[in-house]
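Lab notebook, bench 4. The sequencing result for the construct came back, and we need a structural model before the next group meeting so we can plan mutations. Quick request posted to the team channel:

Model the 3D structure of this chain.
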Amino acid sequence: MSKRIRLTKYEVKALGLEWREGDGSSNPKYRLKKDKVNELYKIRGVEKGAKVLIFDIETAPSVGYIWGKWQQNINDCQLINEWFMLTWSAKWLFHDEVLNAKLTGKEALKQNDKRIAKSIWKLLDEADIIIGHNIKKFDLKKLNARFLLHGLGTPSSFELIDTLLHARKSFSVHSNKLDYLAQILGVGSKVNHDGFSMWDKCYKGDEEALAKMAEYNNGDILINESVYLEIRPFIKPHPNLGLYIGDDIERCPSCGSDDLKITGDYYTTTNSYPELTCSNCGSNSRSRKANKRGPGVLSSLPR
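Done. Here's the predicted structure in C-alpha cell form:
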C-alpha cells in the first residue's frame, strides 16, 4: 500500500529521497510506502503542540489624483478610493491543503472585503504562531486595519515569524525577496502573472482575474513554507515549540523534536550549559539545565 503525498524540500531531505522540481510554484508529490508515510508523520508530528499558520494577502491599490511620478505627497482630498483586500491564502505548517478566499466580482466592485476579512480573522484567532514574508510591516497592519473598519476586534494572541526580517538579519544575499530566496534555495518560484493589469482587472471586478490572483496568492504560501523550513536553523530567537507540547522532555525549541545530541558547551557570564544540535531540523540550542560541576559527571543525552 502506498500514498501520493506532496512534500516540501525539507521533508524530502529528511526522508532520504531525491528532490525533483514541482510545477514551478508548488512542491512535488511523491508516492510513499507505509514505512515512509509513518516516518513522514513522525517528522510532521513534532509540530503537534503548536498550530503554525503560514499566510499572505493580496490587496487592491489605492486610487488618487497625482501631478507627477516621483516623491509625491498625496493629500487626503486627492484620494479617490482606499485600498481593500482582494484575496488571502494560508496553510497550516506541514498540512497538504492550501486554504484561501477571494472576492467575488460584485464584492470587488463594491470594495467590500468584510466576508474574506472574517474568514482570515478566524484562522489568525486559531493560530499559536504565524509565518509570512514581510507580514510584520505589511500583511498584519493591513489586516488589522480591515479588522478595525469591520468591527471584528483583535484575534487572540500569537507569536510571529517574519521570514523577510530573519533573512535580512542572518544572510547577505543579492535580494531578500521571497521569489529570489526560493529560487536560490531551489524550492520553487512565484506563479507568473500579467503584471499590474491583473490588479487593475481585479479592481474592476473581473472574475477570471480574481481567480488568477488567488492562484498567484496560493503559490506564495507554498514557497514561503519551503523557504521557512530551509532557513529555520538560522532563525534566532525562534518561538519555543517545545513549550507547546508541554512535557518535561528536553526538546528543540525550533521544531519540538526530542532527537537532540550534545555537540559542545554553551557559556553565559554566570554558567555553562550543554549545547544541543537537533537531528531533525539542524537547529542549535542550549539545554535548560546547567552543566553539573565536578569530575565524572556526564549528561544523560548522547554525544
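DSSP finds ten helices and twelve strands in the chain.
Will bring this to the meeting.
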